[in-house]
Amino acid sequence: MTWTRKDLLGIEELSREEIELILSTAESFKEVSTREIKKVPALRGKTVVNLFYEPSTRTRVSFEVAAKRLSADVIHIATETSSVRKGETLIDTGRNIEALKADIIVVRHNCSGAAAMLARHVNLSVVNAGDGWHEHPTQALLDIFTLKEKFGRITGLQVSIVGDIAHSRVARSNIWGLTKLGAKVMVCAPEILIPPGIEEMGASVTHDIDEALRHADCVNVLRMQFERDTEAAFPQQLEYFKQFGITQDRIRKAKKNILVMHPGPINRGIEISSEVADGHNSVILEQVTNGIAVRMSVLFLVAQANDQLEKHEDTH
Amino acid sequence: MKILIKGGRVIDPASNLDVICDVLTQDSTIAKVSKGIKTEADYTIEATDKIVMPGLIDMHVHLREPGREDKETVESGTRAALKGGVTCVLAMPNTHPALDSVEHIRLLKNIIKNSAHAHVFIAGAITRGRLGEELVDIAGVKREGVVAITDDGYSVDSDVLMLEALKTAQASGMLVICHSEDKKLSKNGVVNLGLTSTRMGLRGISKESEYKRVQRDIELAEEAGARVHIAHVSCKESLELIAAAKKKGIKVTCETAPHYFSLSEEDVLGFDTNMKMNPPLRSRQDRVVIREGLADGTIDAIASDHAPHTENEKDIEFERAEFGVVGLETLLAASITELVEKGVLSWPDLVAKFTVNPARILGLSKGSLKEGADADLTVVAPKEEWLVEKTSLVSKSKNCAFLGRALKGVVEYAICSGRIAYPFKNNSRKKNR
Asked: Residue B193's closest chain A neighbor by CA?
């Protein structure tokens, strides 16, 4: 199996083998971060541009650390301070970055499909760091990597995703990835936060948190963004925590070794209690550590594939 | 000027004609339709293996003029029409200014007089500025030759005002065309609500937003005793309502557009903004039902909903891109490819959806090859295939849903008022404007 995509835009279009290749490559990169000199020359001479249209700290920093550990040069463009504010389009910005002879754009954008659109218009590699409600592939990959590390397998695992599924790119990417690898996925939220057709994507649905936890090997707790929408009937914070909050009481009733994940940043006391977030079932910080290995893997694979593509074009 | 079209398969549903014969035009009228016409003509078209039909009528076209000449003009839009075999278009009123007054109608009429290459009929607005608040002077715009009224792009939300519009229109013998959409239900959706909107992480447009408004518009038409025409029908439920209303004797007609019987929501999954239109591409099942509706006659007409937009408005983030696609140049070919070739419609049934049916709906003395009728004809090579590419389109805008597809049916001639309007002559009729 070789990786041939110049971009990573989503999990939906990946095969099981491609996902496994990213994970196994990540395994070999994980060790780099434990060395005294945390660096390998895999992307030496490459330039990675972080182009973030949405505020983000952890994803941006994670990509930056990953790129640096691969010896790439990293540039960060925050759109609040760039010519984007002067009305430059995403495509124009992408073409300018290409003209700088950068190799990879890591893009975070509030519009679904933005990464795909950018990828169609530039020859350099595009890595989706989250587009609208659509996909957040590296987050799902690091979640799956962490699961696999703990259980040694994905097939047959039961994963419950709890929270605002309707507006969550993390949920979508996880559903695609987990089901492709043979896990069972259940989503749990108030009815209004379950998008139509989610069952056809392969997830089962419940509105009962106890049912979601009953057989789960892992619960992935999404951040609730109560400030997000003015749409009617959005649940109240306290009511939400009462009905869906992940508390120690609820975890006690679940499987003993249930993993608690959260893509961060966490809202203590809103979707998850501090006790659980800091408790022994929580792997929230390990997810952060694994995020670096997974992103190193992705950056490495897309850069290598794009080099191959260019070589191929040169010889023709 | 005499044009003789020899030996084509002449299809004219208005006179129940489907026969291999000749057609002779004399100046701006059809002089004779029969076998073996022997006469000296100024121009002779050998039409063996070609189909000869009345010039197509596209009853849903956004020419964008006045106001958005960067997207399209009467000049460029009517050229695109002719290339697609369309000799009559109905221009929609969502221009800037909107076609909501005698003055604005006259403005467009003047532009048409100076620059149109094909016949342009005008749809006026129902309400001032298409804001849904105050009716236009319906009798006044009727006197200016407006053949229908519509707030296309919007529906008149107020039941009271819509009823009044229908009653007033009925009294003036004016057709009301409904863009049936309840924006309170479609919200800010951009693709079909359901698995597609969920997969793409985009806001969905429910079918309810369409068919509930179709239902209301039919009910109000019944109450007013008025005629209504439902534009761009995209889903099963709307069609069922229309079929039931027709059965009941309510004076309702409807149209669909080629994208609704050719494409479905799967085609939008790649975030191609040329697949973004309103109503959105629906499910495969809806596509099947639309084809059935065409076959059983529930759908009276096929119209392009030609909606040109610039690249700056289309080649951007999906949810920010404008709704709509150009369609004048692919209207006939897409219909041949998807309907005739696939056995959904016979040739005469297809031709009727472009000619006699829209002519009757709009009350035009067009769409027929009877002797003495207007000499508007289209000659098409039905089996010839072409690739839809940006460079092959003459419309100012290239936002076509069929880009990259091979379609069957090449228009060889469009004859408009007895002269050969397509193929274009070099610098044909470019007046100073």
From this structure: A196
Beta bridge partners of A207: none
A153 and A241 belong to one structural domain: yes
Q: Is residue A312, in this structure, part of any structural domain at all?
A: no
Here the ipTM equals 0.94
String of DSSP letters for B60-90? EE---TTT-TTT--HHHHHHHHHHTTEEEEE
Distance between CA atoms of B290 and B239, rounded to whole angstroms? 8
A273 and A146 fall within a common domain: yes
Beta bridge partners of A162: A188, A221
A316 domain-assigned? no
Question: Is the domain of A63 the same as that of A154?
Answer: no
- In the numeric block, which tokens belong to residue B355? 């000619």
Within 8 A of A132 by CB-CB distance, chain B residues are 201-202, 319
CB B170 within 8 A of CB B144: no
- If asked whether residues A52 and A184 sit together in one domain, one would say no
Residue A201 and residue A104 in one domain: no
Chain centroid, CA B21 distance in Å: 29
pLDDT digits (tens, 9 = 90+) for B73-130: 999 999 999 999 999 999 999 999 999 999 999 999 999 999 999 999 999 999 999 9
Contacts of A200 in chain B (CB under 8 A): 195
What are the residues facing A206 on neighbouring strands? A188
Please check whether residue A10 lies inside any domain of the structure: no
- Residues 94-123 of chain A with CB under 8 A from chain B are 109, 111-114, 116-117
Q: Which CATH class is domain B55-369+383-407?
A: alpha beta
Measured between CB atoms, does A201 come within 8 Å of chain B?
A: yes
Beta strand pairing call for B377-387 and B51-54? antiparallel
Number of domains into which chain A is organized: 2
Q: Are residues A180 and A218 in the same domain?
A: yes
| Dist CA A228 CA A231 (whole Å) | 9
0.80 cut: is pTM over it?
yes
What is the span of the domain harbouring residue A259?
A: 137-284
Is the same domain home to A142 and A131? no
CA distance A128 to chain B (A): 14
Q: Out of B199, B204, B317, whose CB is closest to A117?
A: B317
- Contacts of residue A109 in chain B, CB cutoff 8 Å? 317
Residues A148 and A92 placed together within one structural domain of the fold: no
Q: pLDDT confidence of B329, banded at 50, 70, 90?
A: very high
Give domain status of residue A232, yes or no: yes
CATH no. for residue A96?
3.40.50.1370
As annotated, the active-site residues of A are 58-59, 86, 108, 136
Distance, in angstroms, between B234 CA and closest chain A CA?
A: 20
> Tens digit of pLDDT for each residue in A305-314?
999 988 887 7
Q: How far is A39 from chain B (nearest CA, A)?
A: 37
Q: Which two tokens stand for residue A148?
A: 């696999």
- Six-digit token pair at A38? 């945390």
Residue B107, classed as helix, strand or coil, is helix
The whole-number pLDDT of residue B433 equals 37
A211 touches B at CB < 8 Å = no
Select the residue of A90, A111, A195 nearest B319 (Cβ to Cβ): A111
